[in-house]
Every structure is written in C-alpha cells, then in structure tokens.
Amino acid sequence: MLSPIQLYKRAYYGLSLNSWYLSLVMLINRSGTMVIPFMTLYCTQQLHFSIAQAGWIMGIFGLGSISGAFLGGRLTDKYGFYDVQVFALFSGGVLFILLGFQHTFLTLGIFTFILSLCNEAFRPANSTAIAYHSSGENKTRSYSLNRLAVNLGWAFGGAIGGFLASFNYHLLFWVDGCTNILAAVFLLKLLPRSGFTKTVHKTDISNIPSSAYRDGVYLVFILLATLFATCFFQMFTIQPLFYKTEWHLNEQFIGFLMALNGILIAFIEMVIVYNLEGKRHPLKYISLGIFITGVAFLLLNVLVPGKFSAITVMVLITIGEIISMPFMNAFWIVRTSEHNRGQYAALYSMSWSTAQILAPTVGSQIILYNHFSMLWWIMALMCGISSIGFVFLYRFVLSPKS
C-alpha cells in the first residue's frame, strides 16, 4: 500500500523539464483568467445588457475561438508551435486590456471576436508543444500536468477575480492582459527558440490517418465531445448568473466556487490519472466522467438552493471533469503524427470553441423562453446522450472495422 507521498512522487515522476516549463507558462497565463468567467455578470451588471445580449457576446467569443483554433492549427503545422504560442500570448494580452475600454454592444462584440481569434490560436500550438516535449509513456500525465497548471491558475484567478469584481470590474481586464504578456515573456526566457520551431519531421505515418478531417472515428469523437463541452461550459457562462439571480449568491462566493474547481483538480487529478492510466480504454473513463457531470446538472433542480448545494454540484462537476478530460487528450494524441498533430489539436480545440458559442447562446435562449430549471434538465439529458455515445464509440473503436 503506497503512502500519499509515494503516490504523488510516482504521479509526477518522469516528466520532462520542458513539460514543467510549459506548465509554468500556463500557470502564469491562467492565473489572470478573470474576464471570461465574469463576462455575463459584467455585461448585465455593469453595462446593463440583457441576458440575451450577454449570451450573444459569449457566443461571439466562441465564434472567434473556432476561427482562432483552426488558424492556430494550420499555422502550427506550417511554421511550428513556438512562434504561434508567443504571438497568441502577446496579442491576447494587449487585446484583453483594450477590451475593457469597450462599452457598447457593437464595439464589445468586435473586440471580443478579435481577442478570441488571437487568443485561441494558442491552444493547438500549446497542445502540440506538450506532445513534442513528452514521451509515449507519459503523454497523458504531461497533459494532466498542463491541466493542473490551468486549474491552479484558474483557482487563483477565480478567487481574485471575484474579489476584484466586487470593487471594479475594469481591473479584471488589466490583470488578464498583463498575465498573458508575462506568460509570453517567461516562454521566451525558459524555452528559447532552439531548433524546435518546426514540428514536422520524417516519420512512419502508414497506420495514421493523413488528415484529422478524414478520420471518421475522430470526427464522431469530436461531435460527442462538443455535445459534452456545451454542457460543461454552462459552469463558466450561465451558471454564475444562475447563482447570482436565482440562488442570490454574491460574487465572492461565486469566485470561491470557481477556485474550488481548480483547487480540487490541482490536488487530486494527477494521482487519479496515474492510477487509472492504462487500466481501461480512455473512452470508458470519458463516458463515466460525462455521466457524473450530467448528474451534477440534474441536482441543480433537485437540491435546496444554498451554498452547500452549490459546493456539492461543483465537486461533482469537477470529478466528472477529472475522469473525462485527460483521457480525451489521451485518445486523440495517439491518432496523430508530427506532420498532422496541429490539425488534430485544432479540431479538438474547435470543438470546445464551438461549445463556447452553443453554451451561452442556447442557454440564454432557453432561459429567455422558459426558465433555468429547463436548462438544467436539458443539460443533464445532453450529458446522458454524450455518455452513451462514447460507450458505442468504444465498442466501434475496438472492433476490427476501426
């Protein structure tokens, strides 16, 4: 029986130094993630937009993210992951600051699109960089380490963001922008350009689909992932508004909930992934995690409104996230080679960006014509469909026809 200390040592053992550097850059970047979680509140509370308008702003952000992910993947395969990451971080930092000066629906929408276009190009480049700096034995843990950095930064940013929002929403834009720029500086210092600016090398690709867009199994995977992500993003878009307007929780506590998500992931995800990795097919874990997330959304209509209920829901969503998301990366990365990894990473990023459009726009429209309770029933149902879909995909993948 291993002690907790031994478990943590084994969970982190064998990861490359550059993987740690990439995670540190991500930690700095995500520590300033404050604008997006509070955007619906900012639009409705500060700019006095309607819920539908706030939903459209978040949808515009998602539309820009899709374009940015596609562009980032193409640029990564053509020019390499290094320059794409640096450009995305610097440009995103400047644009976050400029976004804070936009006060009309039109200008806020325009700047939101440009920001998300530049900012989202970072994702496929970063995913490709993680794969480049990891081995076949520790790729899943390398991605989990990166997610740990994301969520630890999210925990810090969410907590500080809730505190800053209670005083002045405009501070969120400055902090988010400055941390983006600081992350770019650290990337340049810790991982200077040294021969890995181009990700394409000669490799045996006979057993790998030539294009992500012609990989039928992967396209089904992307469809199911998008369905799940549309539900998951409610946590960052509509759910804070629900807690504020329906359960009457304040910004500080909403920030604490966001921080709790990140803290739990930071403390337990690597150990869980270490213990699960290689024991079952990734699609089995994905299906289970999505099912747990669906149960969490269902409980929003069942539990008595209050802080304890909100914490319970967040814990369940976090557990579902921990079990599903690292193994999503594990699934797609083994289907790639260095010549097309940017495509696969881009398509995966695009699925989540598509969900960023669908989550607030669909969610806000359901609320507008019905009520929050209907939204949570629908989200629970969608998670159930996605979970079952991954079970069927698992059986298909393991069949000789796959």
From TrEMBL:
Source superkingdom: Bacteria
Keyword Cell membrane included in the entry's annotation: yes
Domain Major facilitator superfamily (MFS) profile: 18-401
Primary residence: membrane
Keyword Transmembrane helix (UniProt): yes
Transmembrane segments: 20-42, 54-75, 87-115, 148-165, 171-191, 217-241, 253-273, 285-304, 310-334, 346-368, 374-397
InterPro entries documented for this protein: MFS, MFS_dom, MFS_trans_sf, MFS_Transporters
Membrane topology reported for the UniProt record: Multi-pass membrane protein
Keyword line: Cell membrane, Membrane, Transmembrane, Transmembrane helix, Transport
Compartments it resides in: Cell membrane
Entries under Gene3D superfamilies matching the protein: MFS general substrate transporter like domains
Name the UniProt record assigns to this protein: MFS transporter
Organism classification: Bacteria, Pseudomonadati, Bacteroidota, Sphingobacteriia, Sphingobacteriales
